[in-house]
Amino acid sequence: MDEQLSRAVTTWHLDNGGYCDTPAVYKYHTLRLLHEAVELCLASGAMSIDIGDVIADEINKHREKNRSFGRIDLQNMSEEIADVAILLEVFAGYTEITVDDVVHDKLGVLHERKWIADEHGVLWRKRDDGQA
């Protein structure tokens, strides 16, 4: 993502009450990302059983590497962010979707919506009933 668009995304997040001010809240932001990743999987035709199997496999792989659960590992986080970014670009390329273009377009939609930041600074779309 180009620098100007990256700043626009960050500004949108902050302007709507989002924040990520301590490592203690990282997990909540990555879990929010998981929500969107699941939606992408479903939009591409994946079945719920497939998604569940992948999640279970990743948890087992983490356990087999003798990694502890609930511990922040910045080196591993950096590597996983790189993996996500690379695979997103590869998938977008195969589907002929330009990430910067769709992010720019989606920001316009997001600006029109109402958002609620939870106690961890994660943004959730405000529903008509006022709930996130």
Strand order of the largest sheet: 1-2
Overall 3D shape: globular
Report the helical percentage: 55-70%
**How confident is the prediction overall: mean pLDDT?**
94
H/E series: HHHHHEE
What is the number of domains?
A: 1
Unreliably modeled segments: none
Multimeric status of the protein: single chain
Descriptive overview:
The protein has one domain (3-125). The longest helix has 21 residues, at 74-94. β1 (115-117) and β2 (123-125) form a beta hairpin. Helix content is 63%, strand content 5%. The protein has five helices and two strands, in the order αααααββ. The mean pLDDT is 94. α1 packs parallel to α5. By secondary structure, the chain is mostly helical.
Features of the shown structure:
single chain; 132 residues; mainly alpha; 5 helices
In short:
This protein is 63% helix and 5% strand. With 132 residues, it is mostly helical.
Topology:
Layout: H1 3-15, H2 26-43, H3 48-64, H4 74-94, H5 99-112, E1 115-117, E2 123-125
Antiparallel strand pairs: 1-2
